[in-house]
TrEMBL record:
Residues 63-80 have a biased composition (Basic and acidic residues). Belongs to the Nudix hydrolase family. Its cofactor is Mn(2+); Mg(2+). SUPFAM superfamilies: Nudix. It comes from the Bacteria. Keywords: Hydrolase, Magnesium, Manganese, Metal-binding. Residues 23-155 form the Nudix hydrolase domain. The keyword Magnesium applies. InterPro entries: CoAse, Nudix_hydrolase, NUDIX_hydrolase-like_dom_sf, NUDIX_hydrolase_CS, NUDIX_hydrolase_dom. GO terms for molecular function: coenzyme A diphosphatase activity; metal ion binding. Transmembrane segments: none annotated. This is NUDIX hydrolase. Residues 61-80 are annotated as: Disordered.
């Protein structure tokens, strides 16, 4: 094999995220609704019967099916969870996607639900829904705390193969975790991260 053959074979390749085939992929929607001529953001409270994160505040969303586009997944999941037609969800706009250290890629979108009165939450997944005026989040900054991650190699790790061995200077990482309090609820985790990103975009555009 010659260098030119390698170059020709890879020419025009579109780069992606290394190892993305092994990542679990999810799509979520930050839903905007209009109430009394004011823009609100809609949230779900996860049903207490769910195995993962019962009772926590979240946005509609879920796992992307094989061959499915992220936008389609966000629309489908929102339709299923809120009991509305997909046609009621409009103005879908992608936000920045996130790659976590835990093997997941999250594709967030912001979109509009045209007829909020038609919402009939799927009780198997959604305990309740509530809305908060967008203006509230523009006026109230989240509380921010650090989460620190520590590197802990597994038993049998080949320290003899790396310079420094067991005294190798691993780089410790930290991440900001955001917390909002609204309507007697706590909004944090992925939901707060997507929300903060969206509010920053709104403020950058001076909307």
């Amino acid at each position: 094999m010659k260098i030119q053959q390698i170059s020709d074979a890879l020419l025009g390749r579109t780069p992606s995220i290394l190892g993305h085939e092994q990542f679990m992929k999810f799509a979520v929607l930050l839903p905007l609704v209009e109430i009394n001529n004011e823009v609100h953001i809609l949230f779900e409270v996860r049903a207490l019967t769910l195995r993962r994160q019962p009772g926590e505040v979240c946005f509609p969303g879920g796992r992307i099916e094989k061959g499915e586009e992220p936008e389609k997944a966000a629309t489908r999941e929102t339709s299923e969870e809120l009991g509305i037609k997909e046609s009621e969800i409009t103005n879908m706009i992608p936000l920045d996607f996130m790659v976590s250290a835990f093997g997941t890629i999250i594709y967030p979108f912001v979109g509009t639900i045209k007829n909020a009165e038609a919402i009939r939450p799927n009780q198997a997944e959604v305990g309740e829904v509530f809305t908060v005026p967008l203006a509230f989040f523009k006026k109230n900054q989240p509380a921010t705390y650090k989460i620190h991650y520590q590197v802990k190699p597994e038993d049998g790790f080949p320290f003899d193969l790396i310079i420094g061995g067991e005294n190798y200077n691993w780089q410790n990482r930290s991440m900001d975790e955001y917390f909002y309090r609204a309507n007697g609820k706590v909004i944090w985790g992925l939901t707060a991260r997507v929300l903060t990103h969206f509010i920053e975009l709104v403020e950058q555009e001076d909307i």
